[in-house]
Amino acid sequence: MIARRVCGLGLTVASLSLVSAAPAREPRIVSINPCVDAVLMQVADRGQIAGISHYSRDPRATSIPLAQANAFRATSGTAEEVVALAPDMVITGPHVAPATIAALKRMRIALVQFPVPDSVAESVAQVREIGRITGHPDRGAVLAARIATAARQTGGARVPALIWQSGGLVPGRGTLSDELLGRAGFRNMSAVYGLKKWDVLPLEYLVAAPPRVLLSVGAAEVGEDRLAGHPAIKRLAQRIRVAPYPVRLMNCGGPTIIAAMARLRQVRREMGA
After folding, report:
1. Tens digits of per-residue pLDDT, 91-124?
2. Which of 103, 149, 203, 235 is the most buried (most CB within 10 A)?
3. 89 near 110, Cβ under 8 Å?
4. Is the Signal keyword given for this protein (predicted)?
5. Cβ pair 70, 57 in contact under 8 A
């Protein structure tokens, strides 16, 4: 197996021949990661996409419209499913089953893995790289530019805020969500509570010392999060701004950053100066 680092992205290429070798045609691709699916929809030709992740057909996990996802074959990422689609390349996130890796190696199918981006810069670089390896660097550059523009820094005072997910999970310093909060004019309060990069904030602590804005992940989806509908949160909403933040905006970087920034800026505008 050949493995190398590309462009400082943490991207790993594993195959019996280097992906950088120019193919005779644009590669036929299977994605087994919903975040990669979202990028492929904007940088690859439709005919290149042999399969996408089954998560893209789950309304709680998808980063693309369900109607769009339903137009493609979906797999759960097993070796049998992926190999049956006869791709030239499989693109995925950091975790792949060993059996799938072994099968791809035997079939001389390139495997390209991307880590979860922790910053806008990492995400933009990944988009450009996906554009390059799919044979459409120009489209990758266009999407990368749209993301960078959407994530431009907002001026003015930062409003204390917190993103609060299912079970009280909070993204802290060093996460993509933390950076997006800052760029949209908020100050992530996770560190004030003594939380780590990803940590849990009990409801009692939240109610005792709430931020000015609580972005409640899943609150917009009926039954998505029982904690978000807790009576204490409803009472808290009389004191602070509790804003629904769709769970799909938490799943990925890439084009999801554009939608996430639009939502964050909307909430920030509603707060006024």
Report:
1. 998 888 888 888 899 999 999 999 999 999 999 9
2. 103
3. yes
4. yes
5. yes
